[in-house]
Amino acid sequence: MGLRGLAFARAAALAAAGLAAAGCVAEEPAPADMARDDDRQVRRQPTFGALDADGDGAIAAGEIDAAPASLAALDEDGDGRLSADELRPGNAPIGGPARPPADATAAFMAFDGDGNDALEAAELPSPFRSLVARADADGDAVATEAEILALMTAEAGDPPDPRPAPLLAALDADGDGTLSATEIVSAPRSLRALDSDGDGRLTAAELRPAAGDDAGGGA
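and the corresponding structure tokens:
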């Protein structure tokens, strides 16, 4: 290696050291960041949005009991079952890859009944109430237009999660990627099988993909 090559190698090494010192070198995600991303993936699922009727980020005992009626709200074609398209994250009637983030945000803001430029969970139809918990960056229990736009933009760029979703795996007893009328009726029993701490409710942590690699049906 000539003098020019040595100089280039030295400069590259110094540059790499400088980036590392400045914290610019890519690092493995912290466990807290991974958990937050997993929780966001859980809340993107249409099934979770439908079941979490109050939008608090968990499925309470009463919401588990009401699961059949809540899931039926996702049956867009009225055939009594939920197809793969109706269950696909981001394929809810509002938002998703088919709509640009700004258009999806505007569609959500149309539900702002009190005109305060922010959405409360109660203002949204049941399948979409988890939006507020997902978008609420400052923890004030409402989602502003800016927070919703930021969420829609982030989720539009999210790649599909290849890991099995415990919530859908539990509901889909025969593993065919759809929910039959029987599986919808059996949903409360299937959901209770996911309650790992036995407190009668399901948190996002109990439904994270990493927690459900071996999830099976409960119907």
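(Above: one complete record from the training split.) Strands lie at 58-59, 118-119, 143-144, 202-203.
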